[in-house]
Every structure is written in C-alpha cells, then in structure tokens.
Design brief:
alpha+beta
Length: about 100
C-alpha cells in the first residue's frame, strides 16, 4: 500500500546538479513536476476483513513515525528516509540518496 504526498519541499535545485544541466535546459528541468511516492506501509488481511471494510474503517499499517520508508520518483527508488509527523501531517526526512543502480 503506498501513500502519495505532494509536499512543498525544495528539491528542484538538486535536480539540476544531478542531471548536469546548465542554462535554459536547467531552468526547464527545474520547473518539471514528477510524481513522488512514499511507501508508507503494508498489511495482510483476510478477504472477509477486506469485504467488511466501510467508511470510517481503519487499516493499520506496519509503520510508525520514526520508521524508515522508501521514496520513489516516477516509480524509481531514489532515496530512503525517516517517517516524521509535521503539524499533524506525515512527512519524510531524507536520510539516504541512492546512487544509480542501487
């Protein structure tokens, strides 16, 4: 189960550096928006439990604030981070940027 959150963190500047772009291409790349997915957690449930889910039901996941999660950009694993709570919302504190091929 994945949770997508379009946060307001400033990561555009690093994209230019990583891509090695300069000039007009760097400005275009900095403005591109890509989907960012954070794998928050998962669980297993019996089909009978799934069938009984309705409005207000809570599905408990296997993660807590402070646990490590994967960060994917356009479906590619690019980083890992710590699940944090910021003013009642979930966020990710990036702890590791993965090298290409990891």
């Amino acid at each position: 189960m994945a949770n997508e959150y379009a946060g307001s963190g400033d990561v555009a500047g690093r994209g230019n550096e990583l891509a090695g772009l300069t000039g007009p291409l760097a400005r275009i790349a900095a403005a591109l928006r890509v989907p960012v997915t954070v794998r928050v957690g998962e669980t297993e449930m019996a089909l009978s439990e799934i069938a009984s889910l309705g409005p207000g039901a809570v599905v408990e996941l296997n993660r807590r604030v402070g646990d490590m999660v994967d960060v994917l950009v356009a479906g590619t694993l690019v980083a890992r981070g710590e699940l944090v709570s910021v003013e009642g919302r979930l966020g990710v504190r990036i702890t590791e940027i993965l090298a290409q091929g990891d």
